[in-house]
Amino acid sequence: QVQLVESGGGLVQAGGSLRLSCAASGRSVTSYDMKWYRQAPGKEREFVAGIRWKDNFAYYTNSVKGRFTISRDGAKNTVYLQMNSLKPEDTAIYYCNGWGSWGQGTQVTVSS
User: 19-38 pLDDT, tens per residue?
Assistant: First the structure.
């Protein structure tokens, strides 16, 4: 059974940074494409970033390219999302996804 637990969210001013973590148990984060999604109030959940298991290739939605970085640490079995130059429109609940499973999410709020 796979369990994903996100952490690292919080309140930050525009232009600030946060690093989200997704700790996995039950499976290795190096064995599957891992992704981050987000859901803003009143909006559908949207893809943010992904990292391919076989070659570590990272890919992003256009709105976060150059500002967000996805990475993973096999030893800690954790996936990260480094978010820089945050904007109010980045405010959302951020979710980790892998093996068809979802974490509970972590709230990110960016004030203007």
Answer: 999 999 999 998 999 999 99
